[in-house]
Design goal:
- This is Iron ABC transporter permease.
- By secondary structure, this protein is mostly helical.
- It has helices spanning about 1-10, 10-35, 50-55, 60-90, 100-110, 110-120, 130-140, 150-175, 180-185, 190-200, 205-220, 225-230, 235-245, 255-280, 300-330, 340-350, 350-380, 390-400, 405-420, 420-425, 430-440, 440-450, 455-465, 470-500, 500-505, 515-525, 530-565, 575-580, 580-585, 590-600.
- It contains 30 helices and no strands.
Length: about 600
């Protein structure tokens, strides 16, 4: 009993237990399911037949090669576009350049389900807005845009990856020393040669890391391939796994687990490579006080660049939103008249849809709170990078990155059914909350990690010296100083949870309605106007919550800034920042600039 009390007095022990339940247990269940003939109960035998069957299947080989090709194209396109807009925002005097972070932030916050549905309607060959415009201008033969195609999936996925890569590259671009470009100009190099021969090599670690992370996210994506690819008979690894689960002959759990294990191994390797690449700082240059960004006057080209910016905003925000609004007011898909609010009335008066809204909001509110709390604990534990327990906490999170929503849902389902004390929660909101909060922990960690890096450990150490316990120091110092960032992170997790499709598709039981599943069902049933109306109602709720959260976050940030005393001029930095190796790494200029840019957006 004394050992248990001693362990509970150490927050790292509790965090390690959380990592076991959230990451290790679901992953272990997936591995077990790949080699066991009966997943549930004590029956069944262990065999490699199902794993070998998947590994030697020609269909699986085709799906794997197709996923690799599509992911490579999506990453290449998104990297070029993200780098273009990063340079446009940081190095030119292009008009409207200040709206670039806003556009990218909206893209990051838009659920993938709604974005895929909007482009499925916008790029419809028969009634899509783009094809209608092309047909009116150039004739019927010009209706060539088809979102439900190989390139449609690639382009829609690329547009969402652009926003992530933009924010990953923004810090290194802002940190680049102006003196390097000035030296190249004095040496006679033009701007194009300077960019490709000097700046691109300097950005190589950041570019490589963002490309690897983007490829990982493409392998995890399910919404766009399921909505745009399955109707056209185009399958990637996540949708192939779902096909095993929804097979007409019954769920093939062993085959789905085997394919999930292969995907997990590939993702773990990519995550490992990403961590190794991003850990290299040898190419990063940071100047002193005289280092400042050189903003180039692009002359008449600024209007062409502005036009490209407007086109990108139209393709990613304006046109998809307009298409959703238009379809939501239509009596049927493709209607040119008879617009009304009848679809909204049907959504708001449908008991099933109202129940789905209520369930989704409850799950999203609680799941976002749990995700922010868990990611804060993990970020805090990352400050203590010594000892086997700290290393276990750090490495176990890789399993979370390597489990897409579909695989995570499988692992959580089997974990709850295998543990007797948890089996009673199947079909309830508890299992859904658990799976969704684990799914967004990596995203929440981006917010809490950046905020935690700005709080020196010396403040906690001062609280400990004053007699405060570790838990009280965490609450009174860390949590309070991070509160504005925690609110922003909660809002982002709330939006993402509401739009996740893969996890509810697997875990939704009969009689339990979840909004993303209801919207997806109506879309594939041909009731696109109802799906569009339901999506827009939820987006409106996002806007209201976002406005409230942004206001509250700014008020708290001002109060925190007013309360926190500034050190007098000439004072040395806190001891935790000057002597602690992990603190020095956390205050890397690239990371702090990126976090500042995201908060500004």
């Amino acid at each position: 009993m004394r050992r248990i009390r001693t362990a509970l007095a150490n927050p790292q022990v509790i965090i390690a237990v959380i990592c076991v339940a959230c990451f290790v247990a679901p992953a272990a269940m997936i591995v077990q399911g790949a080699f066991k003939t009966e997943m549930f109960g004590d029956g069944g035998e262990y065999t490699t037949a199902m794993f070998v069957d998947v590994l030697t299947s020609s269909d699986v080989h085709d799906v794997g090669l197709r996923t690799l090709a599509m992911g490579s194209c999506a990453v290449a396109v998104s990297t070029v576009v993200a780098l273009f807009f990063g340079v446009l925002y940081t190095k030119t005097n292009t008009p409207l350049r200040r709206v670039v972070p806003v556009i990218m932030f909206v893209l990051v916050a838009t659920p993938g389900l709604f974005f895929a549905i909007a482009w499925g309607l916008l790029g419809n060959q028969n009634v899509g807005l783009i094809n209608e415009a092309l047909g009116a201008w150039f004739g019927e033969q010009a209706r060539v845009v088809n979102a439900e195609s190989w390139w449609g999936i690639v382009l829609v996925s690329s547009m969402r990856l652009v926003a992530l890569q933009f924010f990953l590259l923004l810090g290194p671009l802002l940190a680049m020393d102006r003196s390097l470009e000035e030296a190249a100009r004095i040496s006679g190099a033009g701007p194009v040669r300077t960019f490709f021969q000097m700046e691109i090599p300097i950005l190589a670690p950041a570019l490589t890391g963002s490309m690897i992370l983007s490829f990982v996210l493409f392998l995890e994506s399910f919404d766009a391939p399921q909505i745009l690819g399955v109707p056209a008979g185009i399958f990637v690894v996540p949708t192939e796994i779902y096909q095993y689960l929804s097979s007409s002959t019954g769920p093939m759990f062993g085959h789905a687990s085997s394919m999930s294990v292969l995907l997990m191994v590939a993702l773990l390797l990519l995550v490992y490579v990403q961590v190794r690449v991003l850990g290299k700082r040898s190419f990063v240059t940071v100047g002193g006080k005289e280092s400042r960004m050189l903003r180039r006057d692009v002359g008449p080209w600024r209007w062409a660049l502005t036009a490209l910016l407007v086109i990108f905003a139209a393709l990613t925000i304006v046109l998809p939103m307009y298409q959703l609004v238009r379809v939501s007011l239509s009596p049927f898909l493709g209607a040119d008249a008879g617009f009304s609010l009848e679809n909204y009335e049907d959504v708001l008066t449908s008991p099933r849809m109202v129940d789905a809204y209520a369930n989704t909001l409850r799950v999203a509110v609680l799941g976002a709170f749990l995700a922010i709390g868990a990611s804060t604990a993990l970020s805090w534990a990352a400050r203590f990078r010594s000892g086997p327990l700290a290393r276990f906490i750090e490495y176990s999170q890789w399993l979370g990155l390597a489990m897409p929503g579909l695989i995570l849902a499988l692992g959580v389902l089997w974990f709850f059914l295998e543990v007797p004390i948890l089996s009673g929660f199947y079909g309830t909101a508890i299992i859904m909350v658990f799976a969704l909060f684990v799914a967004v922990i990596p995203l929440a960690g981006r917010t809490t990690g950046a905020a935690m890096a700005q709080i020196p450990r010396s403040l906690e150490e001062a609280a400990w010296v004053s007699g405060a316990s570790k838990y009280r120091a965490i609450w009174d110092i860390v949590v309070r100083l991070m509160l504005p960032s925690l609110i922003s992170g909660w809002l982002l997790c709330f939006v993402v949870i509401c739009g996740i499709l893969s996890t509810p598709l697997v875990l939704s039981a009969s009689g339990t309605n979840y909004l993303s599943v209801e919207i997806y069902s109506r879309y594939v049933e041909g009731r696109a106007p109802i799906a569009a109306a339901a999506s827009l109602l939820l987006i409106f709720a996002f806007l209201v919550l976002g406005a409230v959260g942004l206001t509250l976050s700014r008020v708290l940030a001002r109060r925190t800034k007013a309360v926190t005393p500034n050190p007098p001029p000439g004072t040395a930095p806190p001891q935790g920042l000057s002597t602690s190796s992990e603190a020095v790494e956390d205050t890397d200029p690239e990371r702090s600039r990126t976090a500042s840019s995201v908060r500004t957006a």
